[in-house]
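HOLO CASE FILE
Compound: S-adenosylmethionine
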Amino acid sequence: MIRNELDRIIKEYHITIDRFDDVALESRCLTETMQETSTKISYADNWFKINSLDINDKTHEQVILSQLMFYKVIKEFTNNNINIPFLDILEKRLDLPILVTKTKFDEYISSIVQRSSNLIIVDIFGRIYEDFVPQKERRRLGQFRTPEPIAMLMVSLLLQNCKRNQSYNLLDIGSGAGIFLLYLYNIALSKGVNMNLEGIEINPLLANALISNFNLYGYPIPEIHLKDFLFMNFEKKYDFVICNPPYTRHHSIPDDKKNKLIREFKRRYGIEISRLSSMPVYFILKALNVLKDGGHGIFIVSTEVFDAKYGVQIKKFLYKHIQIDFLLKFSQTNDAFPDVDVTAVIISFTKRKPSNAHKIKLGVVNSLSYQNQILNDIGKHSDGHLKYEWGEMRAVYQTNLDPEFKLQYILNGMTPNSKVGNNIVYLKDVANIMRGIATGANKFFLLTDDEVKKFSLNKYVVPAIDKNRYIQDIWLTNEDWRKLKLSKKKVWLLYINSNSYIDKSLERYLSIGVSLGIPERSLVKTRKKWYYMEKRDIPPIIFTYLSRANPRFILNEAQVRPLNTFLLIYPKYVIIKNNLTEVLWAILNSTIVIENLRNIGRAYGSNTTKIEPREMDKLPIINPLDLPEGVIQEIRDVIAMFNKTRNRQQFINSIDKIIQEYLRGFGFSGIPLKARNQLYLSEYE
Ligand SMILES: C[S@@+](CC[C@H](N)C(=O)[O-])C[C@H]1O[C@@H](n2cnc3c(N)ncnc32)[C@H](O)[C@@H]1O
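Model generated. Tokens follow.
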């Protein structure tokens, strides 16, 4: 949007950037520039390395040119910038016209601010950078800036540890365009705290953006180390570190770098880091080196950093050696990072060994509009589980945390001791239930295999299923789905979100949607972008939502994302951890549970039962967590048999028998099925 606006202003003032598009097509240009002299080559090489770019890749050429454009903008508006030799050479060679004058730029900025009245824009050059360099590239480089409300919250939380008139030093790691430092300067000033600010940034372009931001506001420019943080030797120790680390996945971290870091942390902390770790793991550990003892750190990372398998090692280390003050997760409803499809978590820690009495505060933030309350409530919260206007918070002993447990579940209150201790529970006690995806226009968003090929959309589609009748059985195998695909059913869903990079073929397909009037459809037009799809994880179990006499729970081996003709059932972590997903699925298909459906759902004539997610929450089931090992094994055997024979009736009979036997132990044996269901209902209503 900003780019368009910039284009508009440039046009308005008769300054053209057409040349930009021309040169973008001239692939030789860059190569020649690189070859001019050997020193220049080495800088260019370095530039390519820093940015993980490949000179032979056309799209990368486009990135460099975008970067160059951005460089020109910041050069126009700062007199204090760090020269970037490679871009300097390139700039001279391409002789790009001057973009805009200072006055026009001011107009441009105020026009953005005016039009985004509900948004605070502090990191203006970060915003412009985002606009120039395609999202796909920034994602590859882990260059996602922190949105203003989150940056402000993190800075305020960190500064709660400061005293008026005291002096501290702080390091912003991967400072980017400087959003944290901008807030730090401001908030520290208003609190009367003397904060000596420093930043480390690997990318000179972003370091320049930071300087431009500080110049724009007339703030003193912090010391910026233009270095690779991971391989910098620090003499100095800091009172505070703050960081939104690059979210680079393991396969993009070069092997030699990985080996060096793994060796270093093994030597320093005795920790065996998994080679599959993403970049934030290294950043957190390295940050501990630069902190003073008793110093404070605050990071924002994707929950995946801790919840993936590779996260177990770092959790083990942190839980044991570092006092974690709080973890704050942003709920999915809160679009914390509007451009990135991750659940973010803030982790705040103090570099000291946690005492046995130390409790971690675990919060879930639903709304960032209550910054002051969040600060206050986190400060005051000491025990128990409380709901606040902005979300909720609980406190648990750090020593009680099991590194094997997913942080997501711990944050939701599923601490290792919270096993549901009853033989009958509601389904919601062991699983989360959601409605399937509502596309708003199945005809357009669902595609056959041929259509996917014809429009070259394979990057953008995921396996999906939209009709109950496509799955008659209770187990959807890969083969079943493949058959549907071969029989030309619409089994691919166009699954685009703010992360997707839109290429020419997608653009073409979307324009067909526009010509069909899809963006005007009632559901479609409520979306941020009309083609963004509702996000759903792949559910392990699917329920036929509107079922004609044949309601069933389907094991989703084919890993499809079902549409809203289905309910999606996500077993909770305790179930997954105990390997009970299939046992739960078998229990759900038992006659006693299926009979219960009638009590919770609504009948829609001719034997059709309709069940909404919140009704499904209340389905009483046999608690898989409470089954004796022997019973679980019997169920597993029956499942294995079903896998071979695919005889559904035999399967259900066998499961029914096991369950009846089990319930007999609780004195339920003489009660007829229907009455028994009511008994469960009245007991748990
Ligand atoms: C997720 S961005 C955060 C930027 C900024 N702090 C913010 O919050 O908006 C991560 C930043 O780290 C920088 N970076 C990546 N690897 C680095 C490294 N090894 N050393 C220093 N900075 C690095 C990237 O260039 C990027 O600017």
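CASE NOTES: The chain has a mean pLDDT of 81. The pocket of S-adenosylmethionine is lined by residues 126, 142-146, 174-176, 179-180, 200-203, 206, 228-230, 244, 246 (CB under 6 Å).
CLOSED: yes
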